[in-house]
Amino acid sequence: MRTLLYITLVFCVLSCSKSSGSAPDQGAKPEPVTPIQASQNSKNKVEYFKKTSNGAAVKIACEGTSITYGQNTTDATIIPAAPGYPSGFTRSEFQYPFVLRDHLKAVGIKANVISRSYPGDRTTEGLSRWKDSISADVTILEYATNDALNNGKYPDGIVSVAKFETQLSALIERRLGQGAWVIICTPPEVRRNPTALLSYTAVIRNLAAKYDLPVFEVQQNIQNIGNIYSDNVHLNAAANLEWGNKISALLKKQ
After folding, report:
1. Looking at CB atoms within 10 Å, which of 57, 65, 182, 221 has the fewest?
2. What is the pTM of this model?
């Protein structure tokens, strides 16, 4: 009787296993983040600080929009567009990625900081524009402003909050999978509409908790200088300088 029961149980397990995998998994939702995935960013962070402690060179990629690029068309101290960009994409005297680089250099960290940013980009363009970029030790992400507001430049217009969450998750997972320590920024407010980005900012904070990402609150960290805008959206040189000053604290030796 025991032998018969054992054979019956084995047959059930095998047949159930085969049937669950026999049909194609069409339209299935992505698997939830497992504890191993959720802790990946902590592991990548450890590797970054191990490198800096040993004096090894590190690579830091700053991915985002015109705000990361430092676009500025109004200040008296603007500088020409970066090489390879349209001439109209003039910049502030300071851009946070390179202020960050200089701070790290001052404390002995050999950092190659790259700005992977393009004016007007949403998460949609971020996914395609930088898909072939090689891995970095750190990736700092800054998206949301154009996802929420850029309804004239692209035929599909505004990116819904739900789609923004999906695409930002993909951006995060892409860099985590390459071994980068991912840091995420909340966007500064839009001067003409301070509440426009609230739903998108909430998504950023939720995903930061999900993936164990440090959050750099841009608005909170730069508003102490007073006027931070060069127009209704973009930051002025002083704000970019303060951004680079403040975010550098996350990447210095611990």
Report:
1. 57
2. 0.84
